[in-house]
User: Which sequence fits this backbone?
């Protein structure tokens, strides 16, 4: 009988502790505004529903993009209003800028299907990365 009373006494404290732990987490446990592509790189819905940002691992902000594509190990994205592409090698965490002609001529990049960010968002699963 004493054990039941002790458990009931600590139950609210335990629930409050769990609530504080979940509340303090930076991750979006219940939302769906971010989807992982690979190795922590994420596509995140921002502002209006048709606007997206590409975020690096552990970053809370990123580049606003119009177009994106991926194929292991590369993610290629074009920032809003830019004529250049951001090429990310997810295996080596390497980020460089390339021109459109470089993207089209390099055999590693030209096979990557490029889509507008909204279409790419629809292809990503909420809790499952691509690779």
Assistant:
């Amino acid at each position: 009988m004493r054990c039941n009373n002790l458990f009931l006494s600590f139950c609210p404290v335990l629930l409050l502790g769990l609530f504080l732990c979940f509340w303090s987490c930076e991750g979006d446990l219940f939302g769906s505004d971010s989807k992982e592509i690979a190795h922590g790189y994420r596509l995140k819905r921002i502002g209006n529903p048709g606007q997206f940002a590409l975020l690096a691992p552990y970053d809370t902000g990123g580049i606003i993009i119009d177009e994106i594509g991926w194929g292991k190990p590369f993610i290629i994205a074009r920032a809003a209003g830019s004529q250049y592409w951001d090429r990310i090698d997810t295996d080596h965490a390497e980020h460089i800028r390339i021109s459109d002609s470089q993207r089209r001529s390099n055999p590693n990049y030209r096979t990557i299907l490029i889509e507008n960010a909204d279409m790419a968002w629809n292809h990503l699963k909420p809790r499952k990365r691509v690779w």
